[in-house]
């Protein structure tokens, strides 16, 4: 009798437990559904800054800036880049005023100058870097085109193969070239457009070779294979020259920065240290210093710029 009572109680508790478990799972399902809808609605909501940025990205000014950002290989939208510039300007201004005790008006002007110089340097460095990567890919491009023509493919098919197999930035450039050729644009016009975008001596030689072989015919495989070997040798020679002149190039950048940094540090230690700079003699000395610094920078760059 006792065993039967215990068994009956256990079955009853099991039924009650299952009932509450099913009820809990139903409530949990409804709660997850409400939470999911809440977050979906939250994704649709955008802040005022994001809306302003989206509207700015649709303007003509933003479209021109977007083209420049793409050419410089900077993965920012125009609104994001403008926001980065504003934040950078505020950071430079804060450092000059609070750490170097530069007068506010001078700091405002100096921050603008430093920001503009940094922006121009960033664009130039990114463009040069992208162009250099593409030039370094030229030997592989020549070999791939040579092997494709040797296997019986046409030059247009070889260009499509390069667009498929090569890494960036050659991938996107040759993809655009292949797309233009597929639309029926003349080979000479398409290759000259590519040449204008790259604007490099090695690439000019490459495009000239393709144009001559396209018009005159001949053994394109032998020409491209020889060019790939020549470009590899030029690449090694340039790397050796770059290693030998690296110290002098860094000196050209460090020499102008050290005295400016020391003057700002002294102004932070000694109150009014920069006041003498804005007197008559101070302006003359500053002009001499600026001219000498610029001349030194240009001379060092001229000496270390060895053309191969």
UniProtKB/TrEMBL annotation:
GO terms for cellular component: plasma membrane. It comes from the Bacteria. InterPro entries: T2SS_GspF_dom, T2SS_GspF_sf. The keyword Ubl conjugation does not apply. It is found in: Cell membrane. Pfam families: T2SSF. The chain crosses the membrane at residues 6-24, 81-99, 105-122, 250-270, 276-300. PANTHER family: INTEGRAL MEMBRANE PROTEIN-RELATED (PTHR35007), PILUS ASSEMBLY PROTEIN (PTHR35007:SF1). This is Membrane protein. The lineage of its organism: Bacteria, Bacillati, Bacillota, Bacilli, Bacillales.
């Amino acid at each position: 009798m006792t065993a039967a009572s215990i068994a009956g109680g256990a079955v009853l508790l099991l039924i009650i437990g299952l009932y509450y478990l099913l009820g809990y799972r139903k409530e949990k399902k409804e709660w997850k559904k409400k939470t999911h809808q809440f977050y979906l609605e939250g994704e649709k909501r955008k802040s005022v800054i994001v809306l302003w940025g989206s509207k700015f990205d649709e303007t003509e000014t933003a479209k021109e800036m977007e083209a420049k950002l793409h050419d410089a290989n900077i993965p920012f939208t125009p609104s994001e880049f403008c926001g980065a510039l504003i934040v950078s300007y505020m950071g430079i201004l804060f450092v000059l005023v609070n750490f170097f005790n530069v007068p506010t008006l001078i700091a405002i002007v100096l921050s603008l100058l430093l920001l503009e110089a940094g922006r121009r340097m960033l664009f130039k460095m990114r463009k040069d870097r992208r162009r250099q990567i593409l030039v370094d890919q030229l030997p592989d491009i020549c070999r791939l085109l040579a092997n494709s023509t040797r296997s019986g493919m046409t030059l247009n098919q070889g260009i499509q193969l390069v667009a498929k197999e090569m890494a960036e930035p050659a991938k996107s450039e040759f993809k655009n070239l292949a797309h233009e050729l597929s639309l029926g644009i003349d080979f000479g016009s398409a290759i000259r457009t590519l040449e204008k975008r790259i604007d490099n001596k090695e690439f000019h030689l490459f495009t000239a070779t393709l144009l001559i072989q396209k018009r005159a015919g001949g053994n394109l495989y032998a020409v491209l294979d020889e060019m790939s070997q020549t470009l590899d040798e030029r690449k090694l020679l340039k790397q050796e020259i770059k290693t030998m002149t690296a110290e002098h190039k860094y000196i050209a950048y460090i020499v102008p920065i050290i005295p400016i940094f020391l003057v700002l540090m002294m102004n932070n230690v000694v109150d009014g240290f920069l006041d003498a700079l804005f007197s008559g003699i101070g302006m003359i000395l500053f002009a001499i210093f600026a001219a000498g610094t610029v001349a030194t920078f240009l001379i060092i760059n001229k000496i270390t710029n060895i053309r191969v």
